C-alpha cells in the first residue's frame, strides 16, 4: 500500500529544507501528493491512449486518434495554447486492417506473428507450401528463379540457436545495492569512449546489407506471396523490428510476416527434415499519405510572474508506439504520467511563476524525430550550435520513457551542479523509494534532443519491471502490463519537480555548452 506522508517525514523534510540552499514548500508537496496518490486519473488517461486509441505507429490513424483525444482532454482541463504542431515531414502512415496466419499441414496451428510495419498485404487469402531458401549469396538464389511466384518463403538461418529456458524473473525492481552503485558513479566514468574501429567488421556488415537488399529485390521480382522472418523473443512474446521504409517514394517490398521464435523454429525444423509444411495467410494493410507531416501535441499552464512568465519548464514523453500491441509501457505510460502531472498541478489551482509546457512527441521510435524537430525549430541546431534566443528561456526539460516502473531517482546527464538541487527535491519522496541521484547519462529517448543544444534535459530512473524482458516493442505491450501504483507515484514526483523548477529563483544550472561537431575530413 502507498505510504502516507507522515509527520516524521514532514519534520525531517522541513529541517533539511531550512538548512539547505533549496527551499521545498512542503504544504504544496502535500497537496500534490494528495491529488496524485488519492485522486489519480492516470489509469483513465492511459486507457484512452491504449485500449481506445490502439497502436500508435507514426502517422497512423491510431496515433492521430490519440493526438486528437489529447488535444480535447487538455482543453477540457483548462490548459492553454493547446495545439498540434508540425515538426517536419515524416512520410506515410500505415496500419494493419486484417491479419490471419496458420499452418494447415502437417496439421492446423495458428501462428503468433505480426505483419512487418510499412509492408503491403497479400492481396487476398493465399494458401501455399512453405519453401525453405538456402542461400548465402545472390548466385545461390538462381536455382529458385521461376519457382517462387505466390509462394510463402523463409530463409534457412544457420545461425539460429535452439531456445533456452530462463531462470530469472521477468519483472524486477532496482535493489538498494543497484541504486547505491548508480549514486556512486563519478563524472570521470561517464566520459564517452570512442569505440575502436574495425574495418573488416564494417566491410562484412556492408556486404551483408548489400546481399540482403539484393535478395529482397529478387524475391520481389519473383512475386513471392509472403516472406516469413524470425522475430526475437520467446514464450510467445516477440519483439518487432524497424519495418520497411515509410518514405513517400519508398521502393515497393514484398509482404512480410515477423513470426514468433517458437513458431518459426517449429516450421524450420520440419522443413529441414524434408517434411512438407503448408500455410494459409491473409494480410490486409493500408497506407496513408494524404498528410506526410509529423505532429507533436503541445499544451501549457501559463506563467504568472511578471519577470519569469516568459521562461519555460518543459515535460514530455513520446506518444508513438510500435504496432504489434498498444504501446502501453512504451510509451503510453510515460505520456499518461506527464499528462497526469499537468492535471495534478491544474487541479490544485497552482499558478506557476514560469510557464509549464507539455509535449507529447511523435516518431521517437524512428529517431527522436518529434523532439529533435521541435528543438531545431525553437531552440537551435546541434549540428551548427547556432541557437535561438528562446534557448536561454527554458529552465529544464524532464522526460519519462522507460516503462511502467516507479521513479526511483533521476539521471543528471553529467550535470553535476543540478545534483544537490534534485537531492533536496526528492527528500519528501524517500518514503516511496525515490532517493537516487546519479551523474550517469541515459540515452535513447527525447531528453537527448534538449541536452544536445545545451538545455538541461533529464530522464528519471525507473524500476525495470518487465520492460526489457517482456514488453518493450513487443506483442505483450498492453494495458495489462501497467502497474497503477507505480504510475501514480511517478506522476506525483514529476508534478513536484515541475513545481519546484517553476518556483525556483534561478533556472536549473547548465553544463558547458556543447561544441558543434567537426566537419568530416575529405
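Sequence proposed for the structure above (522 residues):
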Amino acid at each position: 500500500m502507498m505510504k502516507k506522508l507522515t509527520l516524521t517525514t514532514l519534520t525531517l523534510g522541513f529541517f533539511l529544507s531550512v538548512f539547505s540552499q533549496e527551499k521545498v514548500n512542503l504544504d504544496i508537496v502535500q497537496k500534490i501528493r494528495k491529488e496524485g496518490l488519492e485522486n489519480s486519473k492516470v489509469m483513465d488517461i492511459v486507457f484512452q491512449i491504449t485500449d481506445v486509441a490502439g497502436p500508435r505507429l507514426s502517422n497512423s490513424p491510431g496515433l492521430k486518434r490519440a493526438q486528437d483525444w489529447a488535444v480535447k482532454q487538455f482543453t477540457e482541463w483548462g490548459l492553454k495554447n493547446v495545439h498540434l504542431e508540425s515538426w517536419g515531414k515524416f512520410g506515410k502512415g500505415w496500419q494493419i486492417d486484417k491479419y490471419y496466419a496458420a499452418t494447415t499441414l502437417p496439421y492446423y496451428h495458428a501462428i503468433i506473428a505480426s505483419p512487418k510495419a510499412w509492408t503491403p498485404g497479400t492481396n487476398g487469402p493465399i494458401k501455399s507450401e512453405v519453401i525453405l531458401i538456402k542461400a548465402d549469396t545472390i548466385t545461390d538464389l538462381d536455382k529458385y528463379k521461376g519457382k517462387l511466384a505466390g509462394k510463402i518463403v523463409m530463409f534457412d538461418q544457420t545461425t539460429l540457436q535452439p531456445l533456452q529456458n530462463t531462470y530469472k524473473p521477468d519483472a524486477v525492481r532496482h535493489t538498494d545495492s543497484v541504486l547505491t552503485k548508480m549514486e556512486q558513479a563519478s563524472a570521470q566514468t561517464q566520459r564517452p569512449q570512442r569505440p575502436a574501429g574495425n574495418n573488416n567488421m564494417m566491410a562484412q556488415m556492408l556486404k551483408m546489407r548489400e546481399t540482403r537488399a539484393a535478395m529482397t529485390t529478387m524475391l520481389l521480382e519473383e512475386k513471392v506471396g509472403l516472406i516469413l522472418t524470425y522475430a526475437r523473443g520467446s514464450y510467445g512474446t516477440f519483439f518487432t523490428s524497424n519495418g520497411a521504409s515509410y518514405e513517400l517514394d519508398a521502393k515497393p517490398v514484398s509482404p512480410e510476416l515477423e513470426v514468433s521464435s517458437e513458431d518459426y523454429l517449429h516450421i524450420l525444423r520440419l522443413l529441414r527434415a524434408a517434411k512438407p509444411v503448408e500455410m494459409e495467410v491473409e494480410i490486409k494493410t493500408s497506407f496513408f499519405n494524404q498528410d506526410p507531416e509529423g505532429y507533436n501535441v503541445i499544451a501549457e499552464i501559463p506563467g504568472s510572474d511578471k519577470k519569469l512568465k516568459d521562461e519555460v519548464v518543459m515535460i514530455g514523453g513520446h506518444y508513438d508506439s510500435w504496432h504489434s500491441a498498444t504501446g502501453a509501457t512504451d510509451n503510453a505510460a510515460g505520456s499518461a504520467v506527464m499528462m497526469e502531472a499537468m492535471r495534478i498541478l491544474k487541479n490544485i489551482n497552482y499558478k506557476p511563476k514560469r510557464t509549464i509546457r507539455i509535449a507529447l512527441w511523435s516518431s521517437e521510435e524512428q529517431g527522436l524525430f518529434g523532439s529533435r524537430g521541435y528543438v531545431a525549430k525553437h531552440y537551435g541546431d546541434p549540428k551548427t550550435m547556432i541557437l535561438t534566443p528562446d534557448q536561454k528561456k527554458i529552465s529544464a526539460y524532464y522526460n519519462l520513457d522507460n516503462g511502467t516502473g516507479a521513479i526511483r531517482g533521476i539521471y543528471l546527464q553529467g550535470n553535476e551542479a543540478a545534483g544537490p538541487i534534485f537531492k533536496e527535491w526528492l527528500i519528501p519522496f524517500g518514503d516511496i523509494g525515490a532517493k537516487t541521484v546519479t551523474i550517469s547519462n541515459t540515452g535513447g529517448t527525447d531528453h537527448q534532443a534538449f541536452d544536445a543544444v545545451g538545455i538541461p534535459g533529464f530522464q528519471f530512473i525507473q524500476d525495470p519491471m518487465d520492460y526489457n524482458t517482456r514488453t518493450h516493442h513487443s506483442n505483450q505491450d498492453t494495458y495489462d502490463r501497467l502497474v497503477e501504483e507505480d504510475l501514480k507515484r511517478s506522476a506525483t514526483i514529476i508534478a513536484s519537480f515541475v513545481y519546484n523548477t517553476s518556483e525556483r529563483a534561478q533556472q536549473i544550472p547548465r553544463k558547458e555548452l556543447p561544441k558543434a561537431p567537426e566537419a568530416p575530413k575529405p
